[in-house]
Amino acid sequence: MKQKLSGSVVRSDLKLSDGRTISYYDSKQIDRTAIDSRDEAAQPGIGHLRLDALVNEWVVVASHRQHRIFLPPKELCPLCPTTAEKKTEIPDSNYEVVVFENRAPALRSPASNWALPSITGIDTPDADAAGACEVVCYTADHNTSFAKLSIQQIRTVLEAWKDRTAELSKLPYIAHIFPFENRGEEVGVTLSHPHGQIYAYSFLPPRIEQMLGAAAAHLKRTGRVLLDDVIAREVKDKERVIAQNDEWIAFVPYAARYPFEIHLAPKRSVADFTQLDDAQSQLFPPIAKEILARLDGVFGIEMAYIASWHQAPVRSGRDSMRLHWQIVSVRRQPGKLKYLSGSESGMGAFIMDLAPEQSAQQLRDVEL
User: Fold this and answer.
1) Residue extents of the structural domains in the chain
2) pLDDT tens-digit map of 149-178
3) Do 227 and 235 meet the contact criterion of CB atoms below 8 Å apart?
4) Residue 18: pLDDT over 70
5) CA-CA-CA-CA dihedral for 14, 16, 20, 22, to nearest 10
6) Are the CB atoms for 302 and 251 separated by under 8 Å?
7) Alpha carbons 363 and 239: distance in angstroms, whole number
8) Which of 68, 187, 315, 324 would bridge 265 by S-S if both were Cys, CB 3.0 to 4.6 A apart?
9) Which CATH architecture has domain 2-203?
10) Matching CATH topology for 2-203 and 208-365?
11) Cα–Cα dist 356/163, whole Å
């Protein structure tokens, strides 16, 4: 099945041997017909949710993930295209961008009558870990990175994020959609091929509940959107802004938690990916390349990072929450990482040794 998307991108859906859907995203005309000839494998069972009653937070228990693949060599990478010598998760011999369901998902489709239990303290029942976990392969090239992709390739990735947000939002059990990328063994990457993931939760994660509460309170108090006011302060102060164009602005946040932290947001705010228009989509790739190149240029090495997209939940907070990208690196100096202290791990109270204005200056000083 084919579907035309914005940006002249076409999505082609095929089936893998075990029944999972694989979606190819192409900016050039190409027929996708490759068949997955691997032996059919049984899908893992669904995990379950348990409530931590001390903080009223859901914890996903997914023990089947213990045996997932860990840092294979390039010749055994499951995210590279299939060859005559090696069959992988991608049956075709080449691809631009592909998305498919994780082979060992923490969250997956539940029974049709699934519902998230009401929270009733320690008597709250467990529930199946409903949701979705998808892999987004940015490129067929094993030896590159998101920052080194072409402008067109990044636009195709963006169209995949937009499309998956739209499709996953249709599922009645999905509450929040979280695209993200981990890069570098320092942040726990298990596959070195350039890729990200999408977690679609059946509940609101704690971080989103906090952000939603702050955004809703600000809107009620001022009648304005919180992220809009945050951006206005950065524009006024100037010293933490590291890059901008007509549609996007990148800055080190006023209260950064990590040695190097970059937030990127549309100047015309939108609730989620589905609301980005063509002008915003067209100007995202160049600024995305710039800020990641600046991050890698600080010490002249590829920086390990976690890049998290924050957007409004599917069915709440759409008047107050806004789409933006948060990129954090644990690298504080060449050869030195930031490890979370007792205050940070135990209490969630972060301590910064480097002023955000200092790290913003270091990022601006990088010669591109």
Assistant:
1) 2-203, 208-365
2) 999 999 999 999 999 999 999 999 999 999
3) no
4) yes
5) -40
6) no
7) 11
8) 324
9) 2-Layer Sandwich (3.30)
10) yes
11) 34
Question: Phi and psi dihedrals of 135, rounded to 5?
Answer: -100, 135
CA–CA dist 162, 319 (Å, integer): 19
CATH among 3.60.40.10, 3.30.428.10, 3.40.1000.10, 3.40.50.410 for 208-365: 3.30.428.10
Two tokens, residue 79:
């995210």
Specify the amino acid at residue 183. R
For the stretch 54-84, pLDDT in tens is: 999 999 998 867 666 666 888 889 999 999 9
So which residues are the catalytic ones?
195
Whether the pLDDT of residue 120 is over 80: the answer is yes
- For residue 118, the model assigns a pLDDT of 96
Average pLDDT over residues 107-133: 96
Percent pLDDT > 70 in the chain is 98
- Among 134, 195, 194, 138, which Cα is nearest to 167's? 134
Tell me the DSSP string of 206-244: HHHHHHHHHHHHHHHHHSS-HHHHHHHHHHHH-TTEEEE
pLDDT tens-digit readout, 170-216: 999 999 999 999 998 888 788 899 999 999 999 999 999 999 999 99
Mean of pLDDT over the chain: 94
Alpha carbon distance 339, 300 (integer Å): 21
- pLDDT at residue number 65: 72
Q: Could you give the CA distance from residue 270 to residue 277 in angstroms, rounded to a whole number?
A: 9
Residue with tokens 């009620």: 220
CB 261 within 8 Å of CB 352: no
Structural element, H or E, at residue 49: strand 48-52
Helix axes 278-297 and 356-365, enclosed angle (nearest 10):
90
